[in-house]
Each structure stands twice: as structure tokens, then as C-alpha cells.
């Protein structure tokens, strides 16, 4: 996955994730890359400094869908913090998601990549799992077609 800083012809800046550079080019050529502020499809890449994180807190973004949804013109710019009431709503939804994941999934800790791969290959029974893995391992899972996605929170049960 690659994240690009983008800018439309109306000078609105935003960021978006793509499976790779070719995916960006293909989506842009098809008119599927649009500014969330004004909806313009005249979008270009801009300079961006890479963001480096420790492997334990790194997350993998899901693959770009084949037919991306139409951009929401009223979506807030990612560079502006949401109002406090919106932030509180987001935090409440994340808390609900965490409770659901922890109640309905098995925590496998740092064995996440091995467990996910074993299930994908039919070597282990399929079940809902969550855990932690290195960014490189998560990328390999995605490249091998193993369905994984990042969670917007750090698991409460950490492996020491």
C-alpha cells in the first residue's frame, strides 16, 4: 500500500491510499480519484514526507476496491480536526467496534500473521481473529490474497 498527498486544480489538499503506483494511475485515468472538498477529478500528486512508525503500531490498509465509491463532497478535509461532538461520536463508534471485536474474535497476539496464513491455506479452522504483526508480514499477507485489515485501535491484551 502507498499513501499519496494529492491536490486538485482548486488547490484543495488531501491524502489517499492506493494499492501501488500503477493503481493510482489507473484510477486517475478512469476518473475515480476525486477531491473530497469539491469533487474535481483534476488531481495531481504533491510532495510528501514518509511517515515512519514502529512495526508494532503499524497498520495495513485494505486494498482499493475495484469500483471506488463516489467522493463525498461534504467530507471534511483530513487536515482539519473534526468538531468535538464529531470526535466524541467517532471515539464512541471505535469503542463499540473494539468491544465487538474483543467479544467475537480470538486474540492471537504476535502470532497473527501465522494464524491468518494457516486459516487461508486450510491448515487451521477458520475463525475471527485479531492480533499484531510486523508491517512486512502484513504486506506479504495482502500480496498472497489473505483477507486482513487494520483495526483503528491497539488491542488491550498485549503480549509482553
Question: How would you describe this protein?
Answer:
The chain has four helices and five strands. Helix 3 links the parallel strand 4 (106-109) and strand 5. It has helices spanning 21-29, 84-104, 112-120, 135-143; strands at 2-8, 13-18, 43-46, 106-109, 129-131. It has a three-stranded antiparallel β-sheet with strand order 2-1-3. Strands 4-5 form a two-stranded parallel ribbon. Helices cover 30% and strands 15% of the residues. With 160 residues, it is an alpha+beta fold.
Q: Which class of secondary structure composition applies to the elements?
A: alpha+beta
Q: Total strand count, please?
A: 5
Strand numbers in spatial order across the main sheet: 2-1-3
Query: Largest sheet at a glance?
Result: 3 strands, antiparallel
Q: Label the overall shape.
A: globular
Count of helices? Answer: 4
State the low-pLDDT regions, or none.
none
Question: How are helices and strands ordered from N to C?
Answer: EEHEHEHEH
Mean pLDDT: 81
Radius of gyration: 18 Å
Strand residue content? 15-25%
Q: Helicity, in percent?
A: 25-40%
Terminal Cα span: 29 Å
Amino acid at each position: 500500500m502507498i499513501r499519496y498527498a494529492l491536490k486538485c486544480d482548486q488547490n484543495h489538499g488531501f491524502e489517499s491510499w492506493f494499492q501501488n503506483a500503477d493503481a493510482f494511475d489507473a484510477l486517475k485515468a478512469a476518473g475515480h480519484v476525486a477531491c473530497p472538498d469539491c469533487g474535481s477529478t483534476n488531481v495531481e500528486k504533491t510532495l510528501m514526507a514518509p511517515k515512519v512508525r514502529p512495526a508494532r503500531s503499524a497498520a495495513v490498509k485494505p486494498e482499493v476496491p475495484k469500483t471506488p465509491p463516489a467522493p463525498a463532497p461534504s467530507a471534511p478535509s483530513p487536515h482539519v480536526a473534526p468538531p468535538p461532538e464529531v470526535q466524541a461520536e467517532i471515539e464512541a463508534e471505535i469503542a463499540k467496534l473494539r468491544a465487538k471485536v474483543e467479544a467475537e474474535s480470538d486474540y492471537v497476539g504476535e502470532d497473527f500473521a501465522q494464524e491468518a496464513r494457516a486459516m487461508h491455506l486450510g491448515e487451521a479452522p477458520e475463525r475471527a481473529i485479531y492480533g499484531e504483526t510486523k508491517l512486512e508480514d502484513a504486506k506479504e499477507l495482502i500480496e498472497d490474497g489473505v483477507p486482513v485489515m487494520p483495526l483503528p485501535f491497539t488491542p488491550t491484551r498485549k503480549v509482553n
